[in-house]
Amino acid sequence: MLTSEKIIILDFGSQYTQLIARKVRECGVYAEIYPFSINPEKLKELQPKGIILSGGPSSVYADDAPIPSFDVFGIGVPVLGICYGLQLLAYTKGGAVDRAARREFGRAELLIDSHDDLFKDLPSATNVWMSHGDALTEPPKGFTVIGHSDNSPICAVRSADRKIFGVQFHPEVHHTPLGNKILGNFVRTICKCREVWNAESFIESTIKIIREKVANDGVLLALSGGVDSTVAAVLLHKAIGEKLHCVHIDSGVMRTDESKTVVDLFNQSFNISVELVDGTDLFLERLKDIEDPEQKRKIIGKTFIDLFEESAKKYKDIKWLAQGTLYPDVIESLSVKGPSATIKSHHNVGGLPDKMNLKIIEPFRELFKDEVREVGRQLGVPDWFVKRHPFPGPGLAIRILGEVSKQRLEILRKADDIYLEEIRNARLYDEIWQAFTVLLPVSSVGVMGDERTYENVCALRAVTSTDGMTADWYTFPPEVLAKISNRIINEVRGINRVVYDITSKPPGTIEWE
Ligand code: XMP
């Protein structure tokens, strides 16, 4: 991103590292995450106005503790160490640490001893979230204690030149209600960053970058119907107009009228033409008799590529493929954590760029989902669309457990329509990250009227999440669930039992396959 007002976050493996970046960006200041193992030359090249050290699960005294190979406190810009970052500060600068300290996990009351800078405009006591093992018993030489709690005599410290700070608690999490203010004080007051990061400035600078990069080449974009590819298309169209070629493939495993909604939106609201490819028959033919989830995903991915490649042949000027990759995917590949096991092979148009000799353009590589939504709003994408729940590339095929058939697709579509309609009627749609129905390969006995039935079981799934990486099952008001169940059983032929999924992620995943 082209901004000189930048904060760099060094990741020491905390589950909250992404949250730090999001919270700093909410303050209007651009933040990027790098692994703690970044080399010092690269770090200096980035010209940060400040550095934040994340927390992490290790003790700095462990053999394999993540310790940078250089003095991160000596780069010459202000540094804030959070939790593990504070331990690292003590380790580097020589404070005393109680390694046998009682683990502290949960809410604590921070009592502020100095309101000068980091805690400017905060009350003298405020709730904070603690999650640590080792604890400081003596600040490093030249450091002053600026906050304590009943349990921890040293909760926050500051260097004599007021450039290095450390906090034992997590200002980035929701359970530290004034955490935004603390991070805001660090980035604005201490690092002196101006608030220049917002959706408008992103759009303006990205359009410039796209124009320079692409020049007169054509760009191909696979429009999935999701928020990311839709907003990417509108942004690219603004940047390069008719040089953008959008293709939408109807895989036949979409929800009711999904493809029509997407194409209509582009034609009517944006005057962008979209080539619609109907792949229903081919997808269903290739999915016939397939029950294994990974095989389904692979077949769908390959079929997308085959059809996409076929239709792309028409556009002779294409040199680029645009993708809606988001920042969390990028961070995953940079993370200090080892490569995680493949739980599911996520489908996108991977494989295509090499095959067709295309270069990749990813305008949202640096954005979080909620930022893409804001960019979408600024570009005039209607609110109802921007707020749509994520929908997976393999569509309903991974929500029909067992074999996918036209008949089962029809059953699931009807149940899904009712489910989402009732969620919208109850005004709960925006509270939920994702809600959908799953058709199980299980029949159960029921009684309707005076007759015995033996039909399918349908599961309802609804979760809250901030990025899809972790999720909690959603607590519906019981009367809403009752109405949904009642309507599905009465109105959808083929379903006689409805169950609700109460599994969080982890250990479950959001989708069932
Ligand atoms: P899981 O099921 O892995 O899903 O917890 C996390 C998020 O990713 C979505 N998802 C996909 N999105 N292609 C996509 O574009 C896929 O193959 C895919 N699989 C899962 C899922 O809906 C959830 O939002």
How do the strands and helices of this protein lay out in sequence?
Blueprint: E1 6-11, H1 17-26, E2 30-35, H2 40-45, E3 50-53, E4 79-82, H3 84-93, E5 96-98, E6 104-112, E7 125-132, E8 135-138, E9 143-148, E10 156-159, E11 164-167, H4 179-190, H5 199-214, E12 218-222, H6 227-240, E13 244-250, H7 258-270, E14 274-278, H8 280-287, H9 293-312, E15 318-322, H10 327-334, H11 352-356, E16 359-361, H12 369-378, H13 383-386, H14 406-425, E17 434-448, E18 451-464, E19 472-473, H15 478-491, E20 495-500
Parallel strand pairs: 1-2, 1-3, 3-4, 4-11, 12-13, 12-15, 13-14, 15-16, 18-20
Antiparallel strand pairs: 5-8, 6-7, 6-9, 9-10, 10-11, 17-18, 18-19
What can you tell me about this protein's structure?
Helix content is 33%, strand content 23%. The strands form four sheets. Strands 2-1-3-4-11-10-9-6-7 form a nine-stranded mixed β-sheet. A five-stranded parallel β-sheet has the order 14-13-12-15-16, with helices on both faces. Strands 17, 18, 19 and 20 form a four-stranded mixed β-sheet that branches. The protein starts with 5 loop residues before the first strand and ends in a 13-residue tail after the last strand. The protein has three domains: 6-190, 3-Layer(aba) Sandwich (Rossmann fold); 199-386, Rossmann fold, CATH 3.40.50; 407-500, 2-Layer Sandwich (GMP Synthetase, Chain A, domain 3), CATH 3.30.300. It has 15 helices and 20 strands. The radius of gyration is 26 Å and the shape is globular. The relative contact order is 0.09. Helix 5 packs across helix 6, helix 6 crosses helix 12 and helix 8 packs antiparallel against helix 9. It has 513 residues and is of the alpha/beta class. Strand 18 and strand 19 form a beta hairpin. Residues 336-340 have low confidence and may be disordered. Xanthosine-5'-monophosphate (XMP) binds at residues 344, 346-347, 390, 392-394, 434, 468, 505, 509-511. Residues 344, 346-347, 390, 392-394, 434, 468, 505, 509-511 line the site of xanthosine-5'-monophosphate.
